[in-house]
Amino acid sequence: MDKKIARQRRAKSTRAHIRKLAVPRLTVHRSGQHLYAQVIDASGSKVVAAASTLQKSVSEGLKGTKNIAAAAAVGKAVAERSLAAGVESVAFDRSGMKYHGRIKAIAEAAREAGLKF
Predict the structure, then answer these.
(1) Domain count of the chain?
(2) Alpha helices per DSSP H over 1-117
């Protein structure tokens, strides 16, 4: 089993569990250059809030777009936007990646900004 398939298997398992909980989910995506986070409603059909390092308001004043500081900025922005949309509690969907580094920084920044998970 290669790395990509193993990550997708873990992600599928996590998403099945989150569907049973029937709560909105904070999902993250990490590419080589950028970080993305979005809050998806419980039905899975609508994006409630989103933030990424591609947005000028998020990446303004950052040294780069693929470091822990950028991840913290994305986490804070997505939390503020989801709270403004009325979503206070979410399930964290890390897309099968380890809870470490940039993924951890997004989660901790979102918690500090007031999102509960």
Answers:
(1) 1
(2) 3-21, 56-59, 68-84, 102-112
- Residue 93, in any domain of the structure: yes
- Indicate which CATH number applies to the domain containing 64: 3.30.420.100
Whether 117 is covered by a domain: the verdict is: no
Spell out the residues 6+ positions from residue 25 whose beta carbon is closer than 8 angstroms to its own. Answer: 15, 18, 39, 40, 90, 91, 92, 93
Q: Which domain holds residue 55?
A: 3-112
- What whole-number distance in Å separates Cα of residue 54 and Cα of residue 19? 29
- The per-residue pLDDT string of the chain (117 residues; one tens digit each, 9 = 90 and over) reads 799 999 999 999 999 999 999 999 999 999 999 999 999 999 999 999 999 999 999 999 999 999 999 999 999 999 999 999 999 999 999 999 999 999 999 999 999 999 999
